[in-house]
Amino acid sequence: MTVQLEAFRKGLFDSGLLIPMGVDGLYGRSETFESIGTAFDALVSRTGAADKAEVLRFPPALSKQVFETTGYMASFPQLAGTIHSFAGNDKAHAALMRTIEAKEDWTTTQKATQVVAVPAACYPLYGPLGARGPLKPEGALFDVFSWCFRHEPSLEPTRMQFFRMREFVRAGSPEQVQQFREAWVERGKKMMESLQLPLNVDVANDPFFGRAGRMLVTNQREQALKFELLVPVIEGTSPTACLSFNYHQDKFGLSFKIRKSDGETAHTACVGFGIERVILALLATHGYDPQKWPDRVRSALWP
Amino acid sequence: MTVQLEAFRKGLFDSGLLIPMGVDGLYGRSETFESIGTAFDALVSRTGAADKAEVLRFPPALSKQVFETTGYMASFPQLAGTIHSFAGNDKAHAALMRTIEAKEDWTTTQKATQVVAVPAACYPLYGPLGARGPLKPEGALFDVFSWCFRHEPSLEPTRMQFFRMREFVRAGSPEQVQQFREAWVERGKKMMESLQLPLNVDVANDPFFGRAGRMLVTNQREQALKFELLVPVIEGTSPTACLSFNYHQDKFGLSFKIRKSDGETAHTACVGFGIERVILALLATHGYDPQKWPDRVRSALWP
Hints:
Distance between the termini of chain A: 25 Å
Number of strands of chain A: 12
Largest interface: A-B, 73 and 73 residues
Oligomer: homodimer
Structural class of chain A: alpha+beta
Strand order of the largest sheet of chain A: 3-7-8-12-11-10-9
CATH topology of the largest domain in chain A: BirA Bifunctional Protein, domain 2
Mean pLDDT of chain A: 97
Order of helices and strands of chain A: HEEHEEHHEHEHEEHEHEEHEHH
Shape of chain A: globular
Number of domains of chain A: 2
Low-confidence stretches of chain A: none
Number of helices of chain A: 11
CATH architecture of the largest domain in chain A: 2-Layer Sandwich
Radius of gyration of chain A: 21 Å
Helix content of chain A: 25-40%
Largest sheet of chain A: 7 strands, mixed
């Protein structure tokens, strides 16, 4: 069951679940909204508990040099967010303040700092992982969670500029990481079915930038590098990718020198859970009051 | 008991509590580090529970227009972080990629987006609060929590570029908000004493920018607008401000049209809890293994 975009926005704002912040894609969250996210995050933890992933948490930014190494600017320059600061003296500050007071553009003199907003929760992991030295024969498994930034202002609440992503990340041999990903496609489906969400898993393609990006899209689809678990949320738009299952092959292994125990370059894969998107899919499907959601959905979230 | 800076960094990195990310002031966190923060955050919740604050959560950015309204660029331009993106076409992207590959500065063509990193957890609150219309006669109380950005690269782990801040924010009459602040100075002291941290509360001054900033410092001290709860952490440096108690007078009330029930401009105050700084103060004081901390500290954190 999908909702009409304007009705969805009005429902979320009127109920206070989301709070407008004056720019599309940034919203405050009510306690109820957060409680759904906390419960879903805990459901993800329970679903993956047996694997005993190493828990690591990173801030919502990474170093510019590490960011360059990820290759993100080649694929998604339009989505990335570099963080800039004022670097002038007293005189420059006086000029800056005059520009602000005149309501003119004061951002042109800002200088890039050494930090860039995190575009995906797993990005800060690969540098430290490579720095640890070779993996054990069984590979490695991590549990990460981060606020992520993507510059794509949109009226759709399912497409925020800052949102939270939980991920499990596997590193090891191609077989190890592909097995991890396949297992999570099945787990993810069962988990989301327990929330009584209509869903579909499909091969996906990322919004690679420009003409050169079209080849990357074709490659990604043909090699089935990315699957998404899709839930219809907003009427007349594509269904919303709530979970994604990504096989990076040796991309991050090569860039960050992540090696298997035998010294060969490791492969990596990750499963990502879009916290806000799942909350919004639940609200669209079951209504704005979690107290009135079906008993089985409630007990899956709050056992 | 303070620790020497280099020994502290080595202790935190060797134990894996913090993970270097290639730039000063950005670090990954281990599960143990996070568990201390979660426990402290819950202690703050218990300490303030009786007040029944309204819980709101905001992403780590706010709109540029709201940011301008806060006046932050007048006081702390050197700390603020504007978020910039690539806004060009295929040809510009090709040029950008050549610049990156040549290891030259590729950030000069980035354009400011409509969002700015949050400098303090309460900043995103005031816009929506003003938009709600006049306060009730008893005023209002909020519970916020956010990742915050400040551009101040430092070797001191207690001075991160991205860190988490929990806050309670009170809006109402001058008497209401000053009473709130005074009550929290006492509560904060008791709460931190229960963690057996050596502490001191003192009038504080913010790092206002430049020559004009010196007047602001004097004003802030003379009017006692800011108190800090300080814990000695790093040898040979000033003690670390772990909590702060701020009286904004009518600054945010005027800027964001926050009004009392009688139509007059509301005053605001906040108490802020620096999550990472408290964790680091505990580690410096009681050692790197929370399992070996004094029983009374452990039972205050994990009752």
